[in-house]
Amino acid sequence: MPVSANTVALRCANIHRYLGQGEGRVHVLKGVSFEAHRGQVYAIVGPSGCGKSTLLYLLGLLDRQDDGDIWINNRLMSNSSDADRTAARGEHIGFVFQFHFLMQEFTALENVMMPMRKLGRLTPEAMEARARQLLSSVGLGEKTHRLGTQLSGGEQQRVAIARALANEPAIILADEPTGNLDVKNSTMVFDLLTRLAKENGQAVILVTHNPEIANRCDSVKPMRDGLFV
Prior knowledge:
This protein has one domain: 3-Layer(aba) Sandwich (Rossmann fold), CATH 3.40.50.300. Helix content is about 35%, strand content about 25%. It has helices at about 50-60, 80-90, 110-120, 125-135, 155-165, 185-200, 210-215; strands at about 10-20, 25-35, 40-45, 65-70, 75, 95, 170-175, 205, 220-225, 225-229.
């Protein structure tokens, strides 16, 4: 169900992250603040090593910041337990990575159903119906029973998008989602991701080195040396 674009899905304030120990300790993020509204697509751009992916992993609750706060759907998650963070990820966040990370021994349909099985909100019949609908929406309705090994790179990434959308998350985090694809497939994957997210009122935050894709987002956030500039 579409949600007002004014709804803040994710917010962070004064995020700091250090990596390494002793003399090798690096201040990767130096007080980053940011908010993402539903129905909007954000591109985080910048040179390698500036902190883009580190920030994305923090926003996705896959890592913990050293200082600062993160809210998901207005719920403060900064100091929440690992169990609460895992539950929030499953319910509110969908991930699309540069490498699709499909379970190759399972079909496209089974891959898309996995997040739904983990969340346990739907009946098996409803899970399968939703997975079929999502695969149709990414143009793979006729390939539901193909194994990952029987799909092209672009098709596998489209399955990964369907999987990210499975639980109707408020937030989609994408780390170089078109990095391994040719121009045609890159455009197709980006168009699909943004169209489906806007239709569903989801906030999309993507890290990309592709200036053409970044320029087609609603907002571009350039990052340098651990801060937005």
